[in-house]
Design a protein that fits this description.
There is one protein chain. The protein is 16% helix and 41% strand. It is built from 1 helix and 9 strands; from the N terminus they run H-E-E-E-E-E-E-E-E-E. It folds into 2 domains: 33 residues; 107 residues, Immunoglobulins (Immunoglobulin-like, Sandwich). By secondary structure, it is an alpha+beta fold.
Length: 149
């Protein structure tokens, strides 16, 4: 009698656990679980100009580092001196350090290196999906570098 009672209890528990398993696998109907990390795109763009002629400079290497992770990202200026960084990060305040270096030698003139920073303080994000993706925020940073003497 005791064995039969335990056997029926086990069957009932298995049945209930099976129902619970099916119910939780139908996430859309029951609230679903979302996995990931909140993130946003931080866009930095601009133009690099010669401080003496005010003309755009091509072939300038820009290295941008986040002040927290120090992970580098590299961009190069095009024929019009334009560059673009698109960095993903946690949607909060960010400070990026940017280092500019002339890499083409004397071909189009030599320019001094430059270190600068750009700060996203209380950034406003647009285009997010209302879940983990907060969207994007962007700033324009136009820079002038001096010729080497």
């Amino acid at each position: 009698m005791k064995k039969e009672f335990l056997f029926n209890c086990n069957k009932t528990i298995v049945f209930l656990l099976t129902l619970l398993g099916f119910a939780t696998s139908c996430g859309d109907n029951f609230g679903g679980t979302e996995y990931g990390t909140p993130h946003a795109d931080f866009i930095v763009k601009g133009t690099v100009l010669s401080a003496s002629t005010n003309l755009p400079i091509e072939h300038i290497r820009l290295i941008m580092r986040d002040s927290i992770t120090q992970y580098p990202d590299t961009a190069f200026t095009d024929l019009n001196g334009k560059y673009l960084f698109n960095r993903m990060g946690f949607p909060t305040d960010h400070t990026f350090m940017i280092n500019l270096v002339d890499i083409d030698g004397t071909a189009k003139g030599e320019f001094q290196s430059l270190d600068t920073t750009i700060v996203f303080k209380n950034p406003v994000f647009t285009g997010g999906d209302g879940h983990w993706n907060s969207g994007k925020t962007e700033k324009e940073l136009n820079l002038k570098i001096k010729p080497k003497l």
